[in-house]
Amino acid sequence: MKYEIVKxxxxxxxxxxxxxxxxxxxxxxxxxxxxxxxxxxxxxxxVPQWYIAVDGGDILGGMGVIENDHHNRPDLxxxxxxxxxxxxxxxxxxxxxxxxxxxxxxxxxxxxTLYLVTDHTxxxxxxxxxxxxxxxxxxxxxxxxxxxx
Length: 149
Ligand SMILES: CC(C)(COP(=O)(O)OP(=O)(O)OC[C@H]1O[C@@H](n2cnc3c(N)ncnc32)[C@H](O)[C@@H]1OP(=O)(O)O)[C@@H](O)C(=O)NCCC(=O)NCCS
Known about the structure:
Distance between the termini: 27 Å
Bound molecules: coenzyme A
Order of helices and strands: EHHEEEHEEE
Number of helices: 3
CATH architecture: 3-Layer(aba) Sandwich
Mean pLDDT: 97
Structural class: alpha+beta
């Protein structure tokens, strides 16, 4: 299956569409994403960043990197967040390709250690992440993973 992994800072024209896609996917207002993506476009810091997988005009999946994904360990930062592949496109390597791009891109900007909170127990191991510890999130406990480039 053909798809392209896009670093949104390199394609600012896709920001409004991506913000709508994340809103639709996570039911968080697009303004929240727009605010973060505008921060990314100012380019003052490597974080936040946003990435999508696209096929022509369609967004198939996406994820971001933010400082803290709503948990009580601000020292474990930054965090990969909003990891999602749309149902029909799952199992085709899109999340793996996005994670690979994110880890390489952040390392190229000087951030070689990333963290991620999830409920999954055997997903991120497949992509080279390691379970680190439990954390307390806004919605209860979560599993913190670490990835070193
Ligand atoms: C989890 C998710 C992002 C995977 O996306 P994807 O594009 O299908 O992932 P990939 O095709 O790159 O990789 C899939 C791999 O993970 C495995 N996998 C998928 N879902 C899994 C799960 N729930 N638990 C364990 N492994 C899982 C697949 O078997 C596959 O492994 P393989 O390559 O060894 O066959 C997607 O199913 C999704 O969006 N789910 C709903 C949202 C979600 O759970 N997001 C993560 C929040 S932390």
